[in-house]
């Protein structure tokens, strides 16, 4: 059974189809690159936004990531899934950008309240919860945020995250342990303040 992934228009794209698409990118087919870009753009934006905490830099890091994909597609060795390979590139590009840019910017308050809510009280409660969660995630190192994002938002297993982050599986598990501990403490103090 082939795994399906949501495509740019809501359709499924199998791992085999992604591999074939990347092979076409390696052959410098611009249409294939455009399709791959549209397929990965939403997921990479979410990942980069969560990892860097610098919304203004996400587009540049995404473009840098996809430029590496375009230039290095021929190096894909089929030892991992295409998504693992691309997310590994995005992870490395985001760490480079973080070193270059320094401290993360604080997101605009309007970016925190994107859910539809039936009333003003619900909107305010959601904004406060989102702020507490963003603040708690902001206390994590980029490596810990990456582990949280890749696990809970993208559903990657520890072995895949280890490939993306180029570290041992035990390191991923350790980062997850300390990230959860830190989040639990941060969120507990927020709950006490409410």
TrEMBL record:
<keyword id="KW-0805">Transcription regulation</keyword>
<keyword id="KW-0731">Sigma factor</keyword>
<dbReference type="InterPro" id="IPR007627">
    <property type="entry name" value="RNA_pol_sigma70_r2"/>
</dbReference>
<dbReference type="InterPro" id="IPR013325">
    <property type="entry name" value="RNA_pol_sigma_r2"/>
</dbReference>
<dbReference type="InterPro" id="IPR014284">
    <property type="entry name" value="RNA_pol_sigma-70_dom"/>
</dbReference>
<protein>
    <submittedName>
        <fullName>RNA polymerase sigma factor</fullName>
    </submittedName>
</protein>
<dbReference type="Pfam" id="PF08281">
    <property type="entry name" value="Sigma70_r4_2"/>
</dbReference>
<feature type="domain" description="RNA polymerase sigma-70 region 2">
    <location>
        <begin position="36"/>
        <end position="101"/>
    </location>
</feature>
<dbReference type="Pfam" id="PF04542">
    <property type="entry name" value="Sigma70_r2"/>
</dbReference>
<dbReference type="InterPro" id="IPR013324">
    <property type="entry name" value="RNA_pol_sigma_r3/r4-like"/>
</dbReference>
<dbReference type="InterPro" id="IPR013249">
    <property type="entry name" value="RNA_pol_sigma70_r4_t2"/>
</dbReference>
<feature type="domain" description="RNA polymerase sigma factor 70 region 4 type 2">
    <location>
        <begin position="133"/>
        <end position="183"/>
    </location>
</feature>
<comment type="similarity">
    <text>Belongs to the sigma-70 factor family. ECF subfamily.</text>
</comment>
<dbReference type="InterPro" id="IPR039425">
    <property type="entry name" value="RNA_pol_sigma-70-like"/>
</dbReference>
<dbReference type="InterPro" id="IPR036388">
    <property type="entry name" value="WH-like_DNA-bd_sf"/>
</dbReference>
<keyword id="KW-0804">Transcription</keyword>
């Amino acid at each position: 059974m082939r795994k399906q992934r949501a495509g740019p228009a809501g359709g499924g794209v199998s791992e085999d189809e992604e591999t074939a698409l990347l092979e076409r990118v390696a052959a410098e087919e611009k249409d294939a690159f455009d399709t791959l870009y549209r397929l990965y753009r939403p997921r990479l934006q979410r990942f980069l936004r969560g990892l860097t905490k610098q919304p203004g830099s996400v587009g540049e890091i995404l473009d840098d990531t996809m430029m590496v994909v375009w230039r290095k597609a021929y190096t894909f060795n089929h030892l991992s899934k295409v998504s693992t390979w691309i997310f590994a590139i995005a992870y490395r590009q985001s760490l480079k950008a973080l070193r270059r840019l320094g401290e993360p910017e604080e997101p605009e308050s309007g970016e925190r309240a994107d859910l539809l809510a039936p009333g003003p009280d619900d909107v305010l409660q959601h904004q406060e919860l989102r702020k507490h969660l963003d603040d708690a995630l902001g206390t994590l190192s980029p490596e810990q945020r990456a582990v949280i994002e890749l696990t809970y938002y993208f559903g990657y297993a520890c072995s895949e995250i280890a490939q993306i982050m180029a570290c041992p599986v035990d390191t991923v598990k350790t980062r997850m342990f300390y990230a959860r501990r830190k989040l639990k403490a941060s969120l507990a103090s927020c709950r006490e303040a409410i």
